[in-house]
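Q: What does the assembly look like in three dimensions?
Context provided by user:
Components: two
Sequences:
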Amino acid sequence: MQELLLGNEAVARGAWEAGCTVTAAYPGTPSTEITESIANYDEIYAEWSPNEKVALEVGVGASIGGARTLVCMKHVGLNVAADPLFTAAYTGVNGGLVIVAADDPGMHSSQNEQDSRYYARAAHVPCLEPSTSQEAKDYVKLAFEISEKYDTPVILRMTTRVSHSRGLVELGERENVPLKDYEKDFNKYVMMPGMAKARHRVVEARENQLAEDCNASPVNQVFKKDRKIGVITAGLPFQYTLQALPEASVLKIGMVYPLPMETIQAFAKTVDRLIVIEELEPLMEKDIKAAGIPCEGKDLFTIQGEYSTNMIKKAVLGISEDGIAPAADLPVRPPIMCPGCPHRGAYYIMKKMKLTVTGDIGCYTLGALPPLASMDTCVCMGASIGMAHGMEKARGKEFAGRTVAIIGDSTFMHSGLTGLANVVYNSGNATVIIVDNRTTGMTGHQNNPTNGRNLKGEPAYEIDLTAVCRALGVQFIQTIDPFDLKGFQAGLKEALAFDGPSVIISKRECALLDKSKWNKPYGVDRDVCIGCKTCIKLGCPALVNDGEKVRIDTALCVGCGLCASVCPTGAIKAGE
Amino acid sequence: MEPISILIVGVGGQGTLLSSRILGQYASHMGYDVKVSEVHGMAQRGGSVVTYVRMGESVASPLIEAGGADYMIAFEKLEALRYVQLMKKSGSIIVNTQRIDPMPVISGTAKYPDGIIEKLSALVETHEVDAAKAAEDVGSIKVVNTIMIGKLAKTMGGDKTIWMEAVKACVPPKTVSLNEAAFNRGYEV
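A: Here is the predicted structure of the complete assembly.
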């Protein structure tokens, strides 16, 4: 039976069919739907961990405990999980351990374009990369087999287009994989120098063995056609190559690390022109060149963004496709905070107070864009707090009095706690706004440790942010509704003036969580509106600026009333 | 056969994912290979979103590139114009008359283009649909998606009962008759 599955759903299906019983993850586009989909399988224990490092540690524990285990994250999540990854490569596994890292070429929803394959090389673990939903499912199963056969964690590298494309997948049955016995093995699982030295030799031998064995693996496939052009490619660029160069011979690499160098040598000899087509970094190309095999690669292609059929045609054959000319000078449509977004209140006040704002990763990152345009920095998960502290140490306490860090509830639990501990410990004065919207918003509303629900939606212990901040030593903590603009401004002013670290918990539920709470759309009394455009500064997409005055698009307005509360003439009124 | 390539464009939050699910289901009913490339994540927060649907005997790339689209369903006018370059000159566009101002227009730093329908029509066959009104006529503003699918089905051709089966398979069971009415309404407008 076939089903039309997202690449991410196919990964989940593959894990289920492979007999996986434990999954841990932190949400992150484009990886999120893997774990959401896993949550539908009753045979698999699955959780949102607070961050990717914890998720992988849970995964390593489950694997050593004997279970086939899947751990999922986006590419930058693997940076967070890198610490356990590098040493889990030494301990090896018991039950199979597969780590999914979803890269984002083109940065649809990310802050950088890093290439996870380098982690496989750096940690000396194998890496598989599928090009379709069907392969995503098949490769997960293969990854579990490789993991157990070679006693190693295996990385499955996805990219946005594979994760978020649907394709037909042949469904299979679940394999019954019994839990493996757990036995104490001090030399394998306790990585102190004496034991780790011995394990490092095991890692090297394993990698060499894999590099040899993958030459015979069906995961790497040769499609023999014309000898004029031979392409070595992997992942989605394989599909683009099929369309762009239907006559070319192709070596499709399914295991992108380590590479099957003998197969590549043999393939190279059968073609006149050898071209490596890989998105992002020239990882395969460099290895192939280092083996003394001449090839083209990034001299034809970019390391930026996503590839496509037309791009390959142009780069390799010099053929351009002409279509309809793009329409000129269209206004851009960047993402924005939704109508009713609680973050809008916090940003309106921060902008009004002309603060320096160190930002973080989440829906509230959108506060960096006009017209709110009041976020100064965005680097990585949890960075806001450390950076606010760093700014203070560089520019002094007075500057700290005009600086705030803004971080979401889920992001704070992910990696804000240690930043806050640092501020307290090192006598900082940072003011931190935790925007607590009761969910992990940007990735599509996942539960987290502070909203009282787990991955499966069951009741869970709700960690109290105020109690956490107090326990960390913060003396000034206030919880304020960000739509109480006056109260929010007063509280923030007090926090900034406070001698010592301070926290404002900006608490209001994401407007998308419960649409039954929406009010009737507001309306503008055009006779009372003076066209001052104060409301426009809120950056709400439900407001319509007709040049002279303002209207409300009733199809978009959710009746939050924030615009009414900033209107100086009372022209904006609740709907009846 | 060359795959049929369909673009679905709109503004994040307009619910375009339902349309792509229905089209995927239609392709399955027809026994086609199919690939659907969706947008999840940041752009869903009010950004410009484009979904690609490709169906045929065998589909390799999930992308639709310049000059490659046979059909476009546009849930918002400006977004139709933004992606018109992906259309084949022989293609057809079904455009909802809804206008949603992007933030640069709201904040007054850019102007919403005039005469979008005329511009589109000059380039490629364009069908204008007031989907919101049609949806209200059949009973719920929530069935805008199905109105647009109905119009696409009429434009593309094919067995109407297969289209209807695809719609029924994707909508909540309680709303089947409402969506049936919406599909028929879209088919007729």
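Follow-up: Chain A has four domains: 2-216, 221-317, 343-507, 518-573.
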